[in-house]
Structures are given as C-alpha cells and as structure tokens.
Design brief:
This protein is 74% helix and 0% strand. The chain has four helices and no strands. α1 packs across α2. It starts with 10 loop residues before the first helix and ends in a 57-residue tail after the last helix.
C-alpha cells in the first residue's frame, strides 16, 4: 500500500508561523533585557547594602582581634618586666641593707683609726721637731762642705777641658784619612755612574740601574763621616741619584740628564774636603790641684728616733789627666 503525504502548508500558514517565531524571539529578547537591567541595578545595591558591610565588619573584627592580641602580648611583657623589676628592687633592697650594715662597721673602724691618727699626729709633731733639728744640723754640715765641693767642681771642669782637647787632637789626626776615604768613595761612585751611562747607551737598563743603586748605597755610607757644608752637598748628590732611579719607571728619557747632573756634582766634590797642612799639635793639661790632695769631711748627723745613725761621708778629689797625643 502507498504512504500518505502530509498536506503542503499554504502561504498564509507559512506567514503566520514566521510571525509567531518573530514574536517569540522579540518577547525572549525583551525578557532578557529586562532581566539584565534588573541584575545591573540590583547587584550593586545588594553588594553595597549586604556584602560590603559584611566584609567591612569582618575586617574590623580581624583588626580588633589583632589589636587585642597585640595588647595582650604587650600586657604580658609589661607584667613580666614589672615582675623582674620588683625582683630586682627586692634584691637591691637586700644589698642596700647589707651595704648600710657594712658602712656602719666601716664608720666604727674609721672612728677607731681617727683616734689612732690623732695619737700618731701628736707623736709626729714631736718627731717633726726632732727632724727639724736634724735638718738644721745637716745644713750646717753642708755649708762646711761647700768650699770642698767648689774645689771638686773646678777639678772636674779642668778634666772636661782636657778631654775636649784630647778629642780634638784625635779628630785632627784622623782628618787626612777621612778626607782620603771620602775622595776614594766619590771616585768609585763616578766610575759606577760611568758604567751606568755606558749601559744605557748599549740599551742595558737593568745593569745601569744596578750601578746607580750601587753608587747611591756607596755614597749613603758617607753620611756618618761628613760635616758642615759637606752634608747638604752629599744629600744633593743622593737626591739626584734617587731621582734617576725613580725616572727608570716614570720618565726613562730623563735618566741621562739626571746622571749628567749627578756626575757634575760628583766632579765638583764635597766642600772643605782638601787635605790639611801638616802641623804638629800637642795638648798638655795640668791639674789645678795636686794629685795627692784629698778632701775628707766627716758629717755627724742627728739620728732619728726610730732609725739608725747616718754613716760618715768622705768625698775624695779626682786628679786631672794630662793628654799628649
């Protein structure tokens, strides 16, 4: 048998179905818009009136809880510190009581010592009177010894003058040797500078620097035996050599000029370094007092009440030597 086919809708039916679908879509869109407007105006109101106050109240509660915890901890610390303070004050109070007791005992001891000191002061006054008499006796004995002391001082002055003349004599005899020694050292330094200049010409800066250093050390050894105007002259040469040594690292081109200046200073030599004329020097120091003169003075001192008597003092004159180089 054959299947039945549905009837074909007419134009009016299709138009009504399209209008119905359009009407439903418009109605659904209106409902969605109304619902969206409701949410747009109601959600902020709900949030501001219900959710936000709850959050603020929660934050305030948490803040109050934190403050309460902090105050509780601070109160506990203050209670602990106060307890320790009370305990420290109690301990200090006990110590103060003990200190007061010790001070009372110390005051009693000082009173006893004060009484002993008063007694000792009276004894000291009597001893002071005895010592004053002892000092007066010493003054008299010293006045008696002053003439002898003046004689001894004159003898010592004569001895010092003789030693000075003897030292000048020895220096005069050694002067030619020192002069010759200084001249030889200057010549050696000039030879070393000549070698250093040759080494510089050959390009051997290491050997040249060693020779300059050797010349510097050689001349530095003359410092103890130069005198007067020789000292600044020697220091000028040493400064020039030291400048040359520094120029090896800072300005190598200036080294030959420094060596030339040092050479000229060495060639000029040290001032007053000539050999003295041969003269004979004889120094004779005669004593002002006889060598057999002896001063003997006996001083009798008044003994102190609790000490042994002072022994006698016997100074003797010292003879003056005679130096003849």
């Amino acid at each position: 048998m054959s299947a039945s086919t549905p009837p074909t809708p007419t134009f009016g039916q299709r138009l009504w179905a399209a209008f119905t679908a359009l009407l439903r879509a418009v109605l659904l869109l209106v409902i969605l818009v109304v619902f969206g407007l409701f949410l747009y105006w109601s959600l902020p109101h709900i949030y501001n009136n219900f959710i936000l106050p709850v959050q603020q109240h929660g934050a305030q509660i948490e803040d109050l809880q934190s403050q309460q915890d902090y105050l509780t901890a601070q109160l506990a610390e203050q209670n602990t510190a106060l307890s320790e303070r009370i305990q420290t004050l109690e301990t200090q109070n006990d110590l103060n009581r003990q200190t007061i007791a010790d001070l009372k005992a110390e005051i009693a001891r000082l009173n006893d010592e004060l009484q002993k000191a008063n007694t000792a002061q009276q004894t000291s006054a009597e001893r002071m009177l005895t010592l004053r008499q002892y000092v007066e006796t010493l003054d008299k004995n010293l006045q008696a010894l002053e003439p002898r002391l003046n004689d001894l001082e004159q003898q010592i002055a004569a001895q010092e003058e003789g030693l000075t003349l003897l030292s000048d004599s020895l220096l005069s005899q050694e002067a030619p040797l020192l002069t010759l020694y200084r001249e030889v050292e200057l010549v050696k330094a000039m030879q070393l500078l000549t070698r250093s200049r040759i080494s510089l010409e050959l390009g051997n800066t290491g050997l040249a620097r060693q020779d300059i250093q050797a010349a510097y050390d050689l001349l530095a050894g003359l410092r103890p035996i130069v005198f007067g105007d020789q000292v600044p002259a020697l220091e000028n040469i040493l400064n020039r050599l030291d400048l040359a040594l520094n120029d090896f690292t800072t300005a190598p081109g200036l080294v030959p000029n420094d060596l030339e200046n040092a050479w000229e200073l060495l060639q000029a030599g040290l001032p007053d370094n000539g050999l003295p004329s041969a003269t004979s020097l004889q120094i004779v120091v005669t004593p002002e007092m006889p060598l057999t003169d002896t001063i003997t003075e006996t001083v009798e001192l008044a003994p102190e009440p609790t000490e042994s008597p002072t022994p006698e003092t016997t100074p003797e004159a010292t003879p003056t030597p005679t130096a003849t180089p």
